[in-house]
From TrEMBL:
<keyword id="KW-0862">Zinc</keyword>
<feature type="domain" description="RING-type">
    <location>
        <begin position="324"/>
        <end position="367"/>
    </location>
</feature>
<dbReference type="GO" id="GO:0043161">
    <property type="term" value="P:proteasome-mediated ubiquitin-dependent protein catabolic process"/>
</dbReference>
<protein>
    <recommendedName>
        <fullName>RING-Gid-type domain-containing protein</fullName>
    </recommendedName>
</protein>
<feature type="domain" description="CTLH">
    <location>
        <begin position="146"/>
        <end position="202"/>
    </location>
</feature>
<dbReference type="InterPro" id="IPR013083">
    <property type="entry name" value="Znf_RING/FYVE/PHD"/>
</dbReference>
<dbReference type="GO" id="GO:0008270">
    <property type="term" value="F:zinc ion binding"/>
</dbReference>
<dbReference type="InterPro" id="IPR044063">
    <property type="entry name" value="ZF_RING_GID"/>
</dbReference>
<feature type="zinc finger region" description="RING-Gid-type">
    <location>
        <begin position="324"/>
        <end position="367"/>
    </location>
</feature>
<dbReference type="InterPro" id="IPR045098">
    <property type="entry name" value="Fyv10_fam"/>
</dbReference>
<dbReference type="InterPro" id="IPR006594">
    <property type="entry name" value="LisH"/>
</dbReference>
<dbReference type="Pfam" id="PF13445">
    <property type="entry name" value="zf-RING_UBOX"/>
</dbReference>
<dbReference type="GO" id="GO:0005737">
    <property type="term" value="C:cytoplasm"/>
</dbReference>
<dbReference type="InterPro" id="IPR006595">
    <property type="entry name" value="CTLH_C"/>
</dbReference>
<dbReference type="GO" id="GO:0034657">
    <property type="term" value="C:GID complex"/>
</dbReference>
<dbReference type="GO" id="GO:0005634">
    <property type="term" value="C:nucleus"/>
</dbReference>
<dbReference type="GO" id="GO:0061630">
    <property type="term" value="F:ubiquitin protein ligase activity"/>
</dbReference>
């Protein structure tokens, strides 16, 4: 991708600038050091300063600051000259020839934009946009929902887990259906937080109250947390010190956002962000293609498909249709794709048929794993 080469060019400029900066400081410090030495000698001597100044001049000539800086500065200048050329090559000022004149539903577009602002926590901006657009009222419903999410996230920034715990408890069954252990992970953070305060008895009481329902599937993790009780007064020096890492909070924050969006039927990433990011990747090859097509006088508007592939990264490759390998039929809302414990996927009706409506286990058609239909969970593409 051309953007990758542009990033490499930018990184090259940044590297040369760093080298130049470091070398300049090194030479400057050396000059200052020699001058300070000369001043110190002159202050302690009653003789004339000519000999000291001559010696200083000789040492500065040996340092040769201009010669030392000339090379690195020249390399930096070359990199700076090449970078704008790379920018001009990648960012064509006229991108209109790379898209078709397609009529968009302004209502849907405005809803997507407003929802994007709410996803980012920019509620005032979203409200202002809706007021000016005058036709994005459907996005207003998203405001209160994402406002709830950002209240939880803001609370977590100040290490307050109560809003997140309440939400997870209220949606416990749905989280279990999705195969998520988010509720336990939030309890995990709260347990460690209590233990950090040195209150072992309170932490044990919290564990007895909140961990019992998770023991069936997460006993090993709970046992590890119980081991922390032995080091309540020196947890940071214990074998469990990694549980204090701030990255644990970041991980749970991301999972909370993901599960919140999932329960809303929304994607984790903003559709607007994903569309723009994919467009940025696809634009350079399209512009190149259009340059060639213009020379051959082909009409872009009349083409039904691109004659050249436009490669996008994996995060922009979606599979909106799933065909069950058993029935050879497409999945539907009533017959969704289900992920089995072995990692393979079948449609729900196929699993029900093979398991006699959940009355027995069955073998996966792809591998010899015995499958329990109650452990299968729905996949959302």
């Amino acid at each position: 991708m051309e953007l990758h080469s542009l990033k490499d060019s930018f990184d090259h400029v940044a590297k040369k600038r760093k080298v130049s900066y470091s070398k300049t400081h090194e030479v400057t410090d050396l000059i200052v050091q020699e001058i300070n030495k000369a001043i110190k000698v002159m202050q302690s001597s009653t003789l004339e300063y000519k000999s000291e100044l001559a010696e200083l001049k000789k040492k500065l000539q040996e340092v040769s600051p201009l010669n030392q800086l000339e090379g690195v500065q020249k390399e930096l200048n070359i990199a700076l000259i090449k970078y704008p050329k790379a920018l001009e090559k990648v960012f064509n000022p006229d991108i209109s020839k790379a898209y078709r004149n397609i009529e968009f539903d302004s209502l849907i577009v405005n809803q997507i934009i407003a929802s994007h602002f709410y996803r980012q926590g920019l509620f005032e901006v979203g409200d202002c946009f809706i007021t000016e657009a005058q036709d994005a009222e459907a996005a207003v419903a998203m405001r209160s929902l994402f406002h709830e999410l950002y209240q939880m996230l803001e609370a977590m920034k100040s290490r307050n887990l109560e809003p997140a715990l309440k939400w997870a408890a209220a949606n416990s069954n749905k989280l279990k259906e999705n195969g998520s252990d988010l509720q336990l992970r939030i309890h995990h953070l709260q347990f460690v937080k209590i233990l950090q305060k040195g209150s072992r008895d309170e932490a044990l009481k919290y564990a007895r109250t909140n961990f019992a329902s998770f023991a069936g599937n997460h006993m090993a993790e709970i046992q590890k947390l119980m081991g922390c009780l032995l080091y309540s007064d020196r947890l940071h020096e214990s074998p469990y010190a990694h549980l204090l890492s701030p990255t644990n909070w970041d991980t749970v924050t991301n999972e909370l956002t993901r599960q919140f969006c999932n329960l809303l039927g929304q994607s984790y990433e903003s559709p607007l962000s994903a569309t723009i990011a994919a467009g940025i990747q696809g634009l350079p090859p399209l512009l190149k293609f259009m340059t060639v097509m213009a020379g051959k006088k082909h009409e872009w508007q009349s083409m039904k498909q691109l004659p050249v592939p436009v490669e996008l990264d994996k995060e922009f490759q979606f599979h909106s249709v799933f065909v069950c390998p058993v029935t050879k039929e497409q999945s539907t809302d009533d017959n969704p794709p289900m992920l089995m414990s072995c990692g393979h996927v079948l449609c729900k009706q196929s699993i029900n048929k093979m398991s006699k409506n959940g009355s027995k286990t069955f073998k996966c058609p792809y591998c010899p794993t015995d499958i329990d239909s109650t452990q299968c969970r729905q996949l959302i593409f």
